[in-house]
Amino acid sequence: MRNGKQFSMIAPSAGFTSRVMTRIAEHERAQARRRALIGSALLVIVAVATLALVAWWLLTVASVLVTTPSVIASLLNAFATLMFWVSKFVGMVWTFASVFIANVGAVQVLMLVLGAFLLTLVWVRVVTQPFQPSPRLLNLGGLRK
Prior knowledge:
Helix 2 (about 70-105) crosses helix 3. The mean pLDDT is about 85. The chain is flat and about 110 Å long. It has helices at about 15-65, 70-105, 105-130, 135-140. By secondary structure, the chain is an all-alpha fold.
Protein backbone atom coordinates (compact mmCIF):
# COMPACT_ATOMS: atom_id res chain seq x y z
CA MET A 1 0.00 0.00 0.00
CA ARG A 2 1.29 3.34 -1.05
CA ASN A 3 -0.18 6.60 -0.03
CA GLY A 4 -3.06 4.83 1.62
CA LYS A 5 -4.42 3.34 -1.61
CA GLN A 6 -5.55 -0.27 -1.74
CA PHE A 7 -4.61 -2.48 -4.63
CA SER A 8 -7.04 -5.04 -5.97
CA MET A 9 -6.18 -8.29 -7.77
CA ILE A 10 -6.99 -8.39 -11.45
CA ALA A 11 -8.32 -11.74 -12.63
CA PRO A 12 -7.33 -13.05 -16.05
CA SER A 13 -9.92 -12.84 -18.78
CA ALA A 14 -12.15 -15.83 -19.51
CA GLY A 15 -10.44 -18.59 -21.52
CA PHE A 16 -6.94 -17.32 -20.72
CA THR A 17 -5.60 -20.70 -19.62
CA SER A 18 -7.05 -22.51 -22.62
CA ARG A 19 -5.45 -19.98 -24.99
CA VAL A 20 -2.09 -20.32 -23.25
CA MET A 21 -2.30 -24.14 -23.36
CA THR A 22 -3.25 -24.01 -27.05
CA ARG A 23 -0.24 -21.81 -27.83
CA ILE A 24 2.05 -24.13 -25.86
CA ALA A 25 0.68 -27.15 -27.75
CA GLU A 26 1.16 -25.35 -31.09
CA HIS A 27 4.72 -24.46 -30.13
CA GLU A 28 5.48 -28.09 -29.19
CA ARG A 29 3.96 -29.35 -32.47
CA ALA A 30 6.06 -26.85 -34.41
CA GLN A 31 9.20 -28.01 -32.58
CA ALA A 32 8.33 -31.66 -33.29
CA ARG A 33 7.85 -30.85 -36.99
CA ARG A 34 11.15 -28.98 -37.03
CA ARG A 35 12.97 -31.91 -35.39
CA ALA A 36 11.39 -34.39 -37.81
CA LEU A 37 12.40 -32.22 -40.77
CA ILE A 38 15.98 -31.89 -39.51
CA GLY A 39 16.18 -35.64 -38.84
CA SER A 40 14.84 -36.44 -42.30
CA ALA A 41 17.27 -34.03 -43.92
CA LEU A 42 20.20 -35.57 -42.04
CA LEU A 43 19.06 -39.05 -43.02
CA VAL A 44 18.86 -38.07 -46.68
CA ILE A 45 22.27 -36.38 -46.54
CA VAL A 46 23.89 -39.45 -44.96
CA ALA A 47 22.19 -41.76 -47.48
CA VAL A 48 23.35 -39.66 -50.43
CA ALA A 49 26.89 -39.43 -49.02
CA THR A 50 27.00 -43.20 -48.50
CA LEU A 51 25.70 -43.80 -52.01
CA ALA A 52 28.32 -41.40 -53.40
CA LEU A 53 31.10 -43.21 -51.52
CA VAL A 54 29.93 -46.61 -52.78
CA ALA A 55 29.67 -45.27 -56.33
CA TRP A 56 33.17 -43.77 -56.06
CA TRP A 57 34.53 -47.10 -54.79
CA LEU A 58 32.81 -49.00 -57.61
CA LEU A 59 34.20 -46.58 -60.19
CA THR A 60 37.67 -46.99 -58.71
CA VAL A 61 37.43 -50.78 -58.83
CA ALA A 62 36.04 -50.66 -62.36
CA SER A 63 38.85 -48.39 -63.53
CA VAL A 64 41.46 -50.71 -62.00
CA LEU A 65 39.84 -53.72 -63.69
CA VAL A 66 39.70 -51.96 -67.05
CA THR A 67 43.28 -50.74 -66.95
CA THR A 68 44.79 -54.01 -65.68
CA PRO A 69 42.88 -57.07 -66.94
CA SER A 70 45.32 -59.40 -65.20
CA VAL A 71 43.61 -58.48 -61.92
CA ILE A 72 40.49 -60.30 -63.12
CA ALA A 73 42.49 -63.45 -63.75
CA SER A 74 44.12 -63.16 -60.33
CA LEU A 75 40.73 -62.70 -58.65
CA LEU A 76 39.28 -65.70 -60.49
CA ASN A 77 42.31 -67.78 -59.53
CA ALA A 78 41.94 -66.76 -55.87
CA PHE A 79 38.21 -67.54 -55.97
CA ALA A 80 38.89 -70.96 -57.50
CA THR A 81 41.46 -71.70 -54.78
CA LEU A 82 38.99 -70.62 -52.11
CA MET A 83 36.25 -72.81 -53.59
CA PHE A 84 38.67 -75.76 -53.69
CA TRP A 85 39.41 -75.45 -49.98
CA VAL A 86 35.73 -74.90 -49.11
CA SER A 87 34.80 -78.07 -51.01
CA LYS A 88 37.56 -80.00 -49.18
CA PHE A 89 36.25 -78.73 -45.83
CA VAL A 90 32.64 -79.63 -46.70
CA GLY A 91 33.79 -83.09 -47.79
CA MET A 92 35.66 -83.54 -44.52
CA VAL A 93 32.61 -82.51 -42.47
CA TRP A 94 30.37 -84.81 -44.53
CA THR A 95 32.75 -87.75 -44.02
CA PHE A 96 32.97 -87.08 -40.28
CA ALA A 97 29.18 -86.80 -39.98
CA SER A 98 28.54 -90.00 -41.94
CA VAL A 99 31.09 -92.00 -39.88
CA PHE A 100 29.72 -90.51 -36.65
CA ILE A 101 26.13 -91.38 -37.57
CA ALA A 102 27.10 -94.87 -38.70
CA ASN A 103 28.84 -95.60 -35.39
CA VAL A 104 26.48 -93.85 -32.99
CA GLY A 105 23.09 -94.35 -34.60
CA ALA A 106 20.60 -92.01 -36.17
CA VAL A 107 18.28 -91.79 -33.14
CA GLN A 108 21.10 -90.78 -30.80
CA VAL A 109 22.33 -88.17 -33.29
CA LEU A 110 18.79 -86.82 -33.59
CA MET A 111 18.59 -86.51 -29.80
CA LEU A 112 21.99 -84.76 -29.71
CA VAL A 113 20.87 -82.30 -32.40
CA LEU A 114 17.58 -81.68 -30.60
CA GLY A 115 19.45 -81.10 -27.32
CA ALA A 116 21.82 -78.66 -28.99
CA PHE A 117 18.86 -76.84 -30.55
CA LEU A 118 17.08 -76.56 -27.19
CA LEU A 119 20.24 -75.33 -25.49
CA THR A 120 20.62 -72.72 -28.23
CA LEU A 121 17.03 -71.58 -27.69
CA VAL A 122 17.61 -71.25 -23.94
CA TRP A 123 20.86 -69.36 -24.56
CA VAL A 124 19.13 -66.93 -26.95
CA ARG A 125 16.33 -66.38 -24.43
CA VAL A 126 18.81 -65.68 -21.62
CA VAL A 127 20.96 -63.36 -23.73
CA THR A 128 18.14 -61.34 -25.27
CA GLN A 129 16.13 -60.63 -22.14
CA PRO A 130 16.21 -61.53 -18.48
CA PHE A 131 14.07 -64.43 -17.41
CA GLN A 132 10.94 -63.22 -15.61
CA PRO A 133 8.56 -66.02 -14.72
CA SER A 134 4.97 -65.12 -15.45
CA PRO A 135 2.27 -65.42 -12.78
CA ARG A 136 0.71 -68.26 -14.80
CA LEU A 137 3.97 -70.20 -14.55
CA LEU A 138 4.12 -69.62 -10.81
CA ASN A 139 0.50 -70.78 -10.39
CA LEU A 140 1.03 -74.08 -12.21
CA GLY A 141 1.39 -75.93 -8.92
CA GLY A 142 -1.89 -74.54 -7.64
CA LEU A 143 -0.22 -72.10 -5.28
CA ARG A 144 -1.90 -68.75 -4.85
CA LYS A 145 -0.34 -65.59 -3.59
